[in-house]
């Protein structure tokens, strides 16, 4: 017989609140209203997309439904007649093994059994003669399974999803860090594009499909992610809250070149004693930063405790131990990491996040900066850049011209007009994405994320043509970004600009709200008799 009530009814809301207070007493304030609204929708089998700030409580969306259903299964007489499962189980798609291990640990603290389905766990099960597919399918051992998209192709998962016990008890299919469907699915990890096909093709239609992230941009990115997961029109519920972090300040510093072997700008991090994560673009960058900081510390075994490297070549156990030490060991201060430590990993004592070079996307930047200040203390988020200015040759965006970009140059062949148009389009996108970070319009508690991001995407820029090429690199200037200035003003301070640069040219630029233009040197005094070809090196 069909249940008497739905979870979205008042009885359902009350039951969720009662169970959370009983099973999770450490949450003294219970759930936020927005969390409760999403949880009851998940329990009713509705599809949801949730975008809220890092540390905003997205993990409750795959933990609490299981906890509630476990309580109902154990004490059915204490609660109203609501849809339930005898052996509730959920699937969480995770991009990295480190994130999966972190989720397993968080769920363990909530008395929810979880498994990280990875190469290591599968290999260990085969060695010991265990049949993981049968154990997962019978729903008697674990309540949450964390798995990467690549493993969904295995025959074991066809067996799991064909198991009648599993199909009767599956509660949800969740994609954590869903923005990576678009960012990584194109080339880096194509299997991200097939997560939706797995959910729609292998799970019952009554199962809730979830997409969680702090950085899903509105418009085309949101539409692309939803369509990949089989969400169209009004068939899903979207909750978008501001991803503003009021306790985090973003600082952009133009210092020594980030491609070298010395990073003196990082010494202040060591001297401060504050726990920090330094995000690098490659494992090679991680090693260079580690070696430099290692040499700067006094000799002794304490250096091994104070500095740690976190990347995908290390084992799951090693990376998990680094996160534990960063959280618990007062001596362990700095973790130097790749993108593997950028998505949703939660280390509460970390106060500072520094990026060596500019991340490829705005979403990645927000994810990296979201690792800092998870306990509400004042924190800092820094981006160290090598700033290079190329003024176009002969005319704006000519086929031989260069563009203004952080750490990237765009050069096209002379006769290739198609390449010229591609240059303009590509450069325009990159500028809107990256220079949009310089907008100093404050983000307030009442700001709405869709409006903020939409306005970021519409910032326009103006470039001026010159008869020569001027390169501006490693100038030693510092840009201080204050995101909490008054609404009717902007603050962009340029400090320590070398006098030789002031005498050579004038940098004019600024933003008037979200619709401003970034103007670059309407007049530039240079020696036009210089060998132009030598300047293109």
From TrEMBL:
<dbReference type="InterPro" id="IPR014001">
    <property type="entry name" value="Helicase_ATP-bd"/>
</dbReference>
<dbReference type="InterPro" id="IPR001650">
    <property type="entry name" value="Helicase_C-like"/>
</dbReference>
<dbReference type="GO" id="GO:0005634">
    <property type="term" value="C:nucleus"/>
</dbReference>
<dbReference type="Pfam" id="PF00270">
    <property type="entry name" value="DEAD"/>
</dbReference>
<dbReference type="GO" id="GO:0003676">
    <property type="term" value="F:nucleic acid binding"/>
</dbReference>
<dbReference type="GO" id="GO:0005524">
    <property type="term" value="F:ATP binding"/>
</dbReference>
<dbReference type="GO" id="GO:0016787">
    <property type="term" value="F:hydrolase activity"/>
</dbReference>
<feature type="domain" description="Helicase ATP-binding">
    <location>
        <begin position="39"/>
        <end position="218"/>
    </location>
</feature>
<protein>
    <recommendedName>
        <fullName>DNA 3'-5' helicase</fullName>
        <ecNumber>5.6.2.4</ecNumber>
    </recommendedName>
</protein>
<dbReference type="GO" id="GO:0043138">
    <property type="term" value="F:3'-5' DNA helicase activity"/>
</dbReference>
<dbReference type="Pfam" id="PF00271">
    <property type="entry name" value="Helicase_C"/>
</dbReference>
<keyword id="KW-0547">Nucleotide-binding</keyword>
<dbReference type="GO" id="GO:0005737">
    <property type="term" value="C:cytoplasm"/>
</dbReference>
<dbReference type="GO" id="GO:0000724">
    <property type="term" value="P:double-strand break repair via homologous recombination"/>
</dbReference>
<dbReference type="GO" id="GO:0005694">
    <property type="term" value="C:chromosome"/>
</dbReference>
<keyword id="KW-0067">ATP-binding</keyword>
<dbReference type="GO" id="GO:0009378">
    <property type="term" value="F:four-way junction helicase activity"/>
</dbReference>
<comment type="similarity">
    <text>Belongs to the helicase family. RecQ subfamily.</text>
</comment>
<feature type="domain" description="Helicase C-terminal">
    <location>
        <begin position="262"/>
        <end position="439"/>
    </location>
</feature>
<dbReference type="InterPro" id="IPR011545">
    <property type="entry name" value="DEAD/DEAH_box_helicase_dom"/>
</dbReference>
<dbReference type="InterPro" id="IPR027417">
    <property type="entry name" value="P-loop_NTPase"/>
</dbReference>
<keyword id="KW-0378">Hydrolase</keyword>
